[in-house]
Amino acid sequence: MIDRVLETARGKVDGADALWRREEQTAVSFESGRLKAAGISEEAGVNLRVLAGGRVGVAGTTAAKPEPVELVARARSSAELGEVVELAFPQAPGSQLPPIPTFFDRTANASLAELIRMGRLLVERLSRPDCQVNVAVQREVADTAVGNTAGARGEYRATGIAVTADITRIAGDDVLMVYDQYIGADMPSDADLEALVQSVETRLTAALNIVTPPDGALPVVFTPAGLAAVVLPLEQALSGKTVLQGSSPLAGKVGELLFDERLSIVDDPLTPGRPASRPVDDECVPSRSTGLVERGVVGRFVYDLETAARAKTQSTGNGRRGVFGKPHIGYTNILFRGNDGAHGGHTAGLGGGLLGDIDDGLIIDDLIGVGQGNVISGAFSHPVGLAYRVQRGEITGRVKDAAVAGNAYDLLKRIGGFGSDGRWLGARWSPSLLLEGVSVARR
Amino acid sequence: MKDRLAAAVKQSRADYTEIRVERTWSSAVAFRGRRLETATVSEDQGGFVRVLNKGCGWGIASFTSLDELPAMVTRANELSRAVRVDDPIRLAETPPQSADAILELDGDVRGVPLAEKKKLLDRYNGAMLAVSSAIVDTQASYRDEVSEVWYVNSDGTSLYQLRPEVVVSGTAIGRRNGNIEKGLESIGLRKGWNSVQNFEQQFRVVAQRAVDLLDAPRVRGGAYPVILDNELAGVFIHEAFGHLSEADFVYENPQAREMMTLGRRFGKPVLNVGDNGAAQGLRGTLPYDDEGTPTQDTPLIKEGILVGRLHSRETAAKLGERPTGNARAISFRHAPIVRMTNTYIAPGTKGVGFNDLIGDIKLGVYACGAFGGQTMLESFSFTAGWGYMIRDGKVAELVKDVVLAGNLFQTLDRIDHIAGDFTWNQMGGGCGKGGQFPLPVTEGAPHVRIEEALIGGDV
């Protein structure tokens, strides 16, 4: 498909690149412990970008039989309004694309009955009186082809499976929601599903007792799920786009020690078995990993082709595009690591072994409204969704009606400890982090 | 197209079949700083089939290739039959509907050259950038669409709907040394080109606010009397209460049903809340929902008492209530689920204004504008765009990072005054639920006073 589109574009424009993607999803859902629905979705589309008169234009379509002439014409009229960009499409790489497994037969061939069996197993394991269990299993198979008029091509098949489980427990006016997920390119093993069950059970059991929240500037353990509010500002600030725009607080700080010396952050599209892994990005740039923060020092920002051209640097292979709109910067797999040997492996307990020295503080597993404030400034302030009080090194119960606030850049300057509970959560890997001096307000 | 869908429904072997086909024409322009990001025209199209069989669950298929329609009806039926259920799924009866519902286009966006749209957005973006050299970055976007939706089901409903939408929004980012602040303006309407003209002043105001916030202190955390402006009060009722009134939360959960028993008191007698998908010309307005049920004005809280909830045909049947026209899907890629439309806090006494609410507050917060909100049902968050301290009955200094931490039962019950100055807030963006975002919704409210609410921040 993209060959036809690129062939049509050749001669009519200075250059072009295109992405074709076809996705098939199969999903089953259990509501309140009962199998409720099964569904499939099939979608295919083409995204075309052209350079015409030095200007960039894009067009996309989900039409079943896209008409290349029409698509190129639409991209050209988009380019008439576009900005001048010195975009250079990558040429065919001298060597092979990195051999990264993205396709797993077991996932692609799993039958509907197999997906239902997995969901049912989770429902059975998680069911308990007065709790409602919802489980969803979703499997995806995607074919991607990218190419450009400079001769580069990339093609791969990928699989993904997401198994999510949530429990809602309502007792009087108390609503408790506990959630976890398995996301991978390969099917979950029995041990993976067991870990999911354990994770939900541990959170639920520790939450049954409700205690008064503390207040003041306190030590707080952010679990991998609870860390979102702290990592989101960094993800925005490490994007080459915000750096170019002058809105990133990390702009101009490459090489400076701004974070705890044990903290490293990597964007890695080559991690085996992750759905976000890929041999080539959506702009035909071969994948490689990028050190964003290395031992506390700001390393590299991530770029796509256009922002790299504007910043006079190279794309880091972080181009991402959908069927509509133009390519933009996107992270692949993002890994937060401590360099003191704490590299996960599962510890069953909440808090990743970081609770021992806490006299009075919190474990944050979920915050409400993450991403809705002035994120890039680093300032966050959120009510707790799921949080536990820690007193003299032990969890004493769940806290409600409390809000935590702080500044991500300040808090990450000195990390009290990296947990031994490192894990994947979607496309992010991290352990729990103990951060000191987080503001906790209560009514 | 209706005939094609009707034929496919007729051939279906399932007990119940519905088919929705959408064709959406859209154009989009975006600026980042002074640079144009994109200016594009797109067409998206696809179909959705959902079927039900006795003793079985839902079978669902969505697809972009319409040639596959008959095959997809067959696939959906196979999927339904693979899902055996003990507790049968029933759909509440609704009279079959047959109509062509064409919403007013108010300047058909399909007839306006893309260059004109770029020019308009350039003006608004330029208005933000011109405010101050401290505005280092902006994000401005224009997006319009005209969506054609065909819907046919085996109960005899056959509909064609034409739904326009236009959204203009801008974020101004101010920076001074290490400080970064933002101001956000967003206008979203279920209308067309004529309705998004002459908003320069609004964009100037938000850019100026981003600059002003650079010098503002963070609000101190703690419990305060809080007055919400119209916009934030709207977001508040959507998050705090609206999501709990969606019947899919309670219909299979006895404990939730008990918590949300009709007749239960949720607030003081000043509080009246509803959801009105039939209101004229709003972004959440639809003549029919995505199950073909006509929309309506549904009272949810009357004088502080819970009186209603929002339904799909399935949740209504389960609870023995009537469908309310709130089954909505963001596109053919999704099944309809219970959603809000235009949710409102009804105005209080006529003539009662902001000044009547503030007079007896010694120390409090006036929380304004909305960056967003999120609920975990009992607990919720809503993030103000900015705020002012209230000192001795008067509006005092500007403060930033105002985020309210709410608890459904405590916060609603602490609303003690509602002004008469009701407005609908026609914002862009939208609501997210069950992986479906952004769904166009509108919120409306007057100024609202909460006796005491928790605000996060340094303590």
Describe the structure.
By secondary structure, chain A is an alpha+beta fold. Helices cover about 20% and strands about 40% of the residues of chain A. Chain A folds into two domains: about 1-205, PmbA/TldD superfamily (PmbA/TldD fold); about 215-440, no CATH class. Chain A has nine helices and 21 strands. In chain A, β15 (about 380-390) and β16 (about 395-400) form a beta hairpin. The radius of gyration of chain A is 24 Å and the shape is globular. Chain A starts with a helix and ends with a strand. Chain B has about 450 residues and is an alpha+beta fold. Chain B folds into two domains: about 1-215, 2-Layer Sandwich (PmbA/TldD fold), CATH 3.30.2290; about 220-455, no CATH class. In chain B, the strands form five sheets. In chain B, strands 1, 2, 3, 4, 5, 6 and 7 form a seven-stranded mixed sheet that branches. In chain B, a hairpin with a 2-residue loop joins β15 and β16 (about 380-390). Chain B is globular and about 70 Å long. At the A-B interface, β2, β3, α2, α4 and β5 of A face β1, β2, β3, α2 and α3 of B.
- Uncertain runs of chain B with pLDDT below 50, 5 residues or more? none
Regarding quaternary structure, what we see is heterodimer
Q: What is the overall number of helices of chain A?
A: 9
Any idea what the shape of chain B is? globular
Low-confidence stretches of chain A: 342-346
